[in-house]
Design brief:
The complex is a heterodimer of chains A (134) and B (69).
Chain A: H1 3-10, H2 14-37, H3 41-61, H4 69-100, H5 110-133
Helix pairs in contact in A: 2-3
Chain B: E1 2-3, H1 5-11, H2 16-23, H3 27-34, H4 42-51, H5 56-59, E2 60-61
Antiparallel strand pairs in B: 1-2
Helix pairs in contact in B: 2-3
The chains are: A mainly alpha (134), B mainly alpha (69).
């Protein structure tokens, strides 16, 4: 990066970097989803990699503080609420499905089985980490 | 937590961005602290007190209703 480019970049406010970085990550996710849906898997992965790399580069080239303790606190709160929400939903939905599977109205298929196993793995990991950090 | 950061900062003619740079957080975090919408960590509270050359209790006053963040 030239001295001029560096000076121009540092003259922009930190929010510009944060928005640029977020845009790169959002672009990466959308490219992967849309590319996969349109059956261009390699293009999708290529654009995804570009977007993710762009976001990471922006994160590392700037001298500004883009994320601080408040971002961490917000992230922890959002993660906690998400885990609690899905935890309570799972505690209602999965036993109901088990009960329903004894009737002719419901049968375990590949999707519901995968969802159940994934949920169990997520909460088992959570329980292990709770124990570890205690 | 009631904060006197804004008052102290304005007395020194300093912008939120200047203070944020000095203590290593974003301007939005300083703004949130000044609006009593975020309670800083002990580490950040010490840095702020150090910046204003005062004690932590001169900057923050605990209240019943705390907002974090």
């Amino acid at each position: 990066m030239s001295e001029h480019t560096s000076t121009v970049m540092q003259s922009r406010p930190p929010q510009t970097y944060k928005r640029l970085m977020t845009s790169c990550f959002v672009f990466a996710g959308i490219a992967l989803g849309v590319g996969t849906a349109l059956e261009f898997p390699l293009v999708a992965v290529g654009l995804y990699t570009l977007g993710m790399a762009g976001g990471m580069i922006i994160l590392y080239i700037t001298d500004y503080t883009l994320f601080d303790e408040r971002d961490t606190t917000i992230h922890q709160r959002a993660s906690g609420v998400t885990l609690a929400l899905f935890g309570w939903l799972s505690a209602l939905v999965f036993p109901s499905l088990v009960a329903l599977s004894t009737t002719p109205h419901f049968e375990w298929g590949p999707t519901t089985t995968t969802l159940s196993i994934t949920t169990a793995v997520v909460y088992l990991t959570y329980a292990l980490l709770l124990g570890y950090y205690r | 937590m009631d904060s006197r950061i804004r008052e102290k900062r304005q007395a020194r003619n300093e912008s939120q961005a200047d203070l944020a740079d000095a203590v290593g957080v974003s301007r939005q975090t300083i703004n949130a602290i000044e609006r009593d919408r975020y309670d800083p960590s002990l580490e950040l509270a010490f840095k702020l007190a150090d910046q204003f050359d005062c004690a932590i209790e001169d900057l923050f006053n605990p209240t019943e209703d705390t907002n974090t963040p």
